[in-house]
Specification:
- It comes from Cladocopium goreaui.
- This is Glycosyltransferase.
- With about 900 residues, the protein is an alpha+beta fold.
- It folds into five domains: about 10-160, no CATH class; about 180-290, no CATH class; about 400-660, Alpha-Beta Plaits (2-Layer Sandwich), CATH 3.30.70.270; about 670-730, no CATH class; about 740-885, Ribonuclease H-like superfamily/Ribonuclease H (Nucleotidyltransferase, domain 5, 2-Layer Sandwich).
- The strands form nine sheets. Strands 12-18-17-13-14 form a five-stranded mixed beta sheet, sandwiched between helices. Strands 27-26-25-28-29 form a five-stranded mixed beta sheet, sandwiched between helices. Strands 7-5-10-9 form a four-stranded antiparallel beta sheet.
- Helix 11 (about 355-365) runs antiparallel to helix 12.
- It starts with 7 loop residues before the first strand and ends in a 17-residue tail after the last helix.
């Protein structure tokens, strides 16, 4: 429906919920405070309330024999609760009444602010008669039935449309609300699993709306097997005298109009595609990678504006910007204005090398909407409460489940527990290194301490610090191990107080590759080189606000004394949600300044930048990025920063640009353990590892230690060989041919049929096959004696079509293929790469091996059964098919 950010709020959350639910007890004052904070978000469009009905139920007045009868708690004379209530019954009624009062307040607020609101309770419930509602047998509540949820959602949807809302697209379209992360995956040839993306083609050709009397509309069929005349008492939009065959009712009849006395009802049918119409429109849509580029709009604007400019012209513009900002930095250095006038003393010391006035001016010149960032940096960042944002990331709200004052009130009790937990050392070497780094940070003025527990303020929040071993790539390409101190602000509940309107969107490997593809198509083939830039002690460059210092005590084990110590951090800690957003806003600002002002082709992933340049411009580009960091007072890690090379490493991935002049880019990663295998697998071509990764997932959730069985050993050996020997994923910027393959199967009376039809990008048929599956052949496909083998036949049709009509020798890496199937089970198994263990698994495995041999980007898509042209040859109906295009096969 497009309402993708809808959330629920409840004190009890079950596993059966179908949308995100936040666990908040609204009967408590703190829970209601959190609710009102959520309701203040600008994107609130509707509120639905379902207060408890158990205490107010009239069913308590019904007496049943031979079973417990819950006592009545309300009556018509006493709707707010009986005067005789005591104990638990009284508390239940009071809690319910608090919720009724809250509902009436929310309803009044929503009405005043033009927000759609509704309250649900049984019609005869005493809740409606309470004084709280007048103002505007069970203790366990039941969940809404699924059909009730659907009906309510449709009512809400129609209400939004009547108020001018734009209907959510039913298919993948350019410039939709698809995230940059998903778009970059599509652009580089990776098909996301599940329903993270809209389908390439919508399910129905169009919708037919029918209005008429209720009794007439309810008599219309749910699905039309043939053309069905529209009753004369009805009207249609668009105009039609009949409902076409294969149409399906998608909305039950509902009353329309403001006056209920008019018998005017409405229902909607989805009209199926004809095969010819589906083929024609699918041909026009080509392939998802052709209209989703996955490039950030700021970078895209730079590439588009530079498409008609020479290399020297772009360099001249970059030089002009460099001179302009060097001059401005010098002017500000001679003056007294540095943007830190309101900074607290500890922040001024941390920001000593930075001119925030210059930073503010460059942010504004870059066109970034985050114009308040420089002032936020000057004041310092808070750790608890609402996290400030800059309108630079997608709107994806997250909400607090605790109030800051709640956490501070509990701090005096929580500190001893965290102090004791810090004494448990898992790895002595890591503990020594964490303590050494902590003392080093103190000596640099980033921390204060150490403090004993009795020296801490009463409401001081203590957070445990621990170490994580990480491998790092040096400038010469070698790997080294280091320990990164991490502060567990989730354990201390600080992170539970955070609400944030935006979700960080880092630019990962797919984003890097997508920008290179777009550059190649915009600026032509160049010999590209790349380098990685890492901000030095990134989080330590940004201070905390004065108000946050009491929330920022770290508990660190001293291995020499065997006792923990407390330190107060003055800078952003690594492990706090608010710190991550504060830093990412800053690193984004640096990135955007580089793109918009200095014309740098680079991406940012938290504190890692990947800079790309052609061989002819790399020295000039390198000079620009160094100048940018220098005048803004940021240092980069010299041990990580290398010169421009055709092979660069970032985020654990090796990016090879040696073939970039031919329009190709390659990325690969070597790992052997599951956590990194998942990431490494995404950088290796094909989907063959799905089943083996599934085996590792099952093993990961096993309880206790167990010997490695034969199945796990096979999976581990396969993954080892695949990671070590598998060909890296190649992203080709060229645009070759597009092929659309349709396959289908049928199974009736113990026999079956297979069919497949291949089209080019113009919707012209290239070839097809049609095959009959005899009873004997069907029996071979059914060793377990199942009632139906339609799954196996559908998979076999796809295998036959791919290997027979799309031979790898005839396909180039730049070509794009879309395979259309109408069996969701087969489609899901192919996309996930989880082939299975039986005969059907062997067939799916054959499709994956075909894709592996192809070296081209294959996209698998659903086609509605009524629109699948391959249905005809699967039933040996070949009227209208050119016999010269038929390919004979032997089942």
């Amino acid at each position: 429906m497009g309402l993708t950010q809808s959330i629920g709020i409840d004190a009890h959350v079950t596993k059966q919920v179908k949308s995100p639910v936040i666990r908040i007890n609204l009967a408590e004052e703190t829970g209601q405070t959190l609710l009102w904070r959520i309701l203040q978000n600008d994107n609130i469009a509707a509120v639905h309330m379902g207060p408890p009905c158990g205490t107010s139920s009239r069913a308590r007045e019904i007496k049943h024999k031979r079973r417990y009868n819950p006592p009545p708690l309300h009556s018509t004379a006493h709707p707010d609760g009986l005067c005789t209530l005591t104990g638990a019954s009284l508390e239940k009624v009071r809690a319910a009444n608090r919720l009724y009062l809250l509902c009436s307040q929310v309803m009044e607020w929503a009405t005043a602010n033009g927000i759609i609101a509704s309250i649900e309770n049984p019609l005869r419930s005493h809740a409606w008669a309470t004084s709280y509602m007048q103002n505007w047998a069970t203790a366990t509540e039941v969940e809404y039935p699924h059909q009730l949820c659907q009906a309510w959602a449709q009512c809400l949807y129609r209400c939004f449309l009547s108020l001018g809302a734009i209907e959510s697209p039913q298919e993948l379209v350019p410039n939709s609300d698809i995230s940059l992360v998903q778009a970059s995956k599509v652009a580089t040839g990776t098909q996301p699993r599940g329903k993270k993306l809209k389908p390439l083609m919508r399910e129905y050709d169009y919708f037919l709306t029918i209005q008429g009397p209720q009794c007439v509309l309810t008599e219309l069929p749910t699905k039309c097997n043939s053309d069905t005349p529209v009753p004369t008492t009805c009207t249609t939009s668009p105009h039609s005298s009949y409902i076409p065959a294969q149409a399906k009712r998608i909305k039950l009849p509902y009353q329309v109009g403001e006056k209920a006395e008019f018998d005017r009802w409405e229902t909607v049918y989805g009209i199926a595609w004809t095969p010819q119409a589906f083929i024609a429109r699918a041909a026009g849509r080509s392939h998802p990678g052709h209209f989703l580029d996955g490039v950030h709009p700021v970078l895209k604007s730079m590439f588009d504006s530079g498409a008609n400019k020479s290399l020297s012209c772009r360099a001249k513009e970059r030089s002009e910007q460099m001179r302009k900002w060097i001059t401005r930095a010098s002017e500000l250095a001679r003056g007294v204005e540095d943007g830190k006038g309101d900074s607290p003393c500890h922040a001024k010391a941390i920001l000593a090398k930075k001119n925030l006035k210059l930073f503010e001016e460059m942010i504004s010149a870059s066109g970034s909407p985050d114009i308040g960032l420089a002032k936020d940096v000057a004041r310092g960042f808070n750790l608890m409460g609402d996290i400030p944002t800059g309108s630079i990331y997608p709107d994806r709200p997250s909400y607090a489940t605790l109030l800051p004052e709640q956490v501070r009130r509990m701090a005096d009790v929580a500190r001893p527990a965290i102090w004791e937990a810090a004494k448990k050392i898992m790895d002595p070497e890591v503990a020594v290194e964490v303590h050494r780094i902590t003392l080093e940070e103190r000596d640099k003025g980033w921390l204060r301490g150490p403090f004993a527990p009795q020296d801490l303020p009463k409401e001081a929040i203590l957070t445990r610090r621990f170490g994580v071993k990480q491998s790092s790539t040096l400038s010469d390409g070698s790997r080294t191990m280091k320990v990164r101190p991490t502060d567990d602000f989730s354990e201390s509940l600080v992170n539970s107080t955070n609400s944030c309107a935006e979700s960080i969107q880092p630019m990962a490997v797919d984003s890097i590759l997508a920008t290179m593809v777009y550059r190649d198509r915009s600026w032509g083939h160049e010999k590209l080189t790349g380098k990685t830039i890492d901000l030095r002690k990134a989080y330590k460059n940004l201070p905390l606000a004065t108000e946050a210092l009491g929330d920022a005590y770290l508990c660190v084990m001293n291995p020499e004394t065997g006792e923990p110590e407390a330190f107060q951090t003055l800078v952003l800690p690594f492990g706090a949600r608010a710190a991550v957003m504060g830093f990412c806003r800053t690193s984004y600002a640096l990135w955007r300044i580089g793109v918009s002002l200095f014309g740098l082709h680079w991406t940012v992933f938290f504190d890692d930048y990947f800079l790309v340049a052609s061989e002819l411009e790399e020295r000039h580009v390198d000079m620009a990025q160094r100048l940018l960091f220098q005048i803004l007072g940021w240092e980069t890690s010299s041990e990580k920063e290398a010169e421009f090379r055709s092979i660069s490493k970032i985020l654990g991935v090796q990016i090879d640009l040696s073939d970039s002049k031919a329009g190709q880019l390659t990325s690969a990663e070597m790992r052997v353990l599951r956590g990194r295998l998942i990431f490494a697998e995404s950088q290796i071509f094909g989907r063959l590892s799905g089943l083996h990764m599934q085996n590792l997932s099952r093993w990961e959730h096993a309880v206790g230690a167990a010997p490695i069985d034969a199945g796990l050993k096979v999976s581990l050996m396969f993954l080892r060989d695949r990671v070590v020997r598998g060909e890296p994923r190649t992203v080709d910027s060229g645009i070759g041919k597009v092929f659309h393959l349709y396959t289908d199967a049928c199974y009736e009376n113990g026999q079956g049929g297979l069919g497949g039809v291949l089209y080019n990008e113009l919707g012209e048929m290239l070839s097809y096959f049609s095959a009959h599956v005899t009873e004997a052949q069907a029996a071979r496909l059914n060793p377990l004696g199942k009632d139906t083998i339609i799954f196996e036949l559908e998979a076999l049709a796809a295998l036959t079509g791919t290997t027979l009509l799309l031979h790898s020798a005839a396909i180039s890496p730049a070509d794009r293929i879309v395979v259309f199937l109408d069996n969701d089970g087969v489609l899901g198994r192919i996309i996930s790469g989880r082939s299975g263990l039986g005969l059907d698994g062997q067939i799916i495995q054959g499709i994956l091996e075909w894709e592996q041999s192809l070296r081209s980007v294959v996209w698998y898509e659903r086609v509605p059964s009524a629109a699948n042209i391959a249905d005809l040859p699967s039933r040996e109906i070949l009227d209208g098919f050119d016999v010269n295009l038929q390919i004979d096969i032997d089942v």
